[in-house]
Structure formats: structure tokens, C-alpha cells
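User: What would this chain look like folded?
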Amino acid sequence: MDHTQADEGAALKQRMAKISHKILVLSGKGGVGKSTVAANLALGLRKLDKSVGLLDVDIHGPSIPTMFHLSERPQINDEGNVVPAEFAAIKIMSIGLFLGGSDDAVIWRGPMKYGAIEQLLRDVEWGDLDYLVIDCPPGTGDEPLSVVQLIGVGRLDGAVIVTTPQDLALIDVRRSIRFCHQLKLPVLGIIENMSGFTCPSCGAHFDIFSAGGGKDLALKLKTP
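Assistant: Here's the prediction, encoded as C-alpha cells.
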């Protein structure tokens, strides 16, 4: 490692040391509402009067900016750091804020994604935070692995894994759990999303799919 790499590594550690808790949000497959859960987790923590940051590391499909109606390109402050966007006093950063438009495609391989995530962690002016919620893309690829390697397992609180009740989603979530176990990353909980809806007229609850699959899996694997 050359001097510059050592300095950058030290800067990243210093930045992350100002954040008390760091939580990954994972899913085994797309379309289960993972980013929605990440956004609501950040909003919920903010309602508890915690200082919160939300980092979107879904390089190829960033959706957090759209959810929060953010489109302005981030500014650089006098110290050369990136100023995060804000919504409801939550600091938000995503690669999507640097794209020319919502239709722009990011065609990057692993090393470029690793470098981008490193910059989002190190060069964004996160400041002192109680929580940093990190929204990862579906699966167990470069992005979640890069986050774990850059921050370090011992400095991460763990991962929240999002699934839906269908058998296919539950099969995929097992891979996310195994990913966490192999990296010795604690699983903070499994969230079963889209398990039902409440009728706005009569208040009755209806199951969209079969319910309880996420709970059964959590009990079987002894996870929250």
C-alpha cells in the first residue's frame, strides 16, 4: 500500500468513527421492497430523534433519490468533501445523484464499484451520526461485500434482510443469510414485506401471498 492509499484508508476510518451505528439492508432478490424498508428505517430512526444518514450503494439501480424526490447534483464544500442531500433532517447520498438523468446506465465492473463506494463512505461529509443505514442492491455481489470490506465487520452492527412470503424469495434470502454468516456479520432481523394489506374502506386485513414464511424461516435459522 502506498502513502496515498494509507492516507485514504485512515480518512475512511476517521469518517466512520464518527458514526455510532451502521446497518446494512439486504435482500436475496429484487422487487421485495428493500429500498422502501431502508428508507422507512431511516425515517423511523429520525422520528426517535436520532441523527441519521442513508447511503444508497445500489450502483446500477439507485432508487433512494427518486423515493425522496432528490435530483440536484451534490455540492463540494471548502474542504473538498461532498455535501449530502437532506430530507426530513436525514443526510442522503447515492450514486444516482451524480448521474445526468434517471435513465442513465452505469456500466461498471467490480473495481470501479468498489472505488465509488469507498468515495461515498470516505468523502461525503456525514458528520456525527447515530445511525447510517446502507441500502445495498439485491444479491450478494460486489456492493455489499465492498461495504463490509471497507468498513470492517467489527465496525458494522449487522444486516437487516428483507423478503416476501413467496417460496422463491425465501430461497434467495437464505443466500443473504449465508453471506452474512460467512462474513461473520450479525443478522439483526428478517423483515417479511408485502405479506398483506389493510382495506382502506372496511379495515379488514388480506394476505397478498401466503403469510408467515419469513417468520418461519427466522425461527428455523434462529435469527430475529
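The domain at 3-163 is CATH 3.40.50.300 (Rossmann fold). If you want, I can go into more detail on any region.
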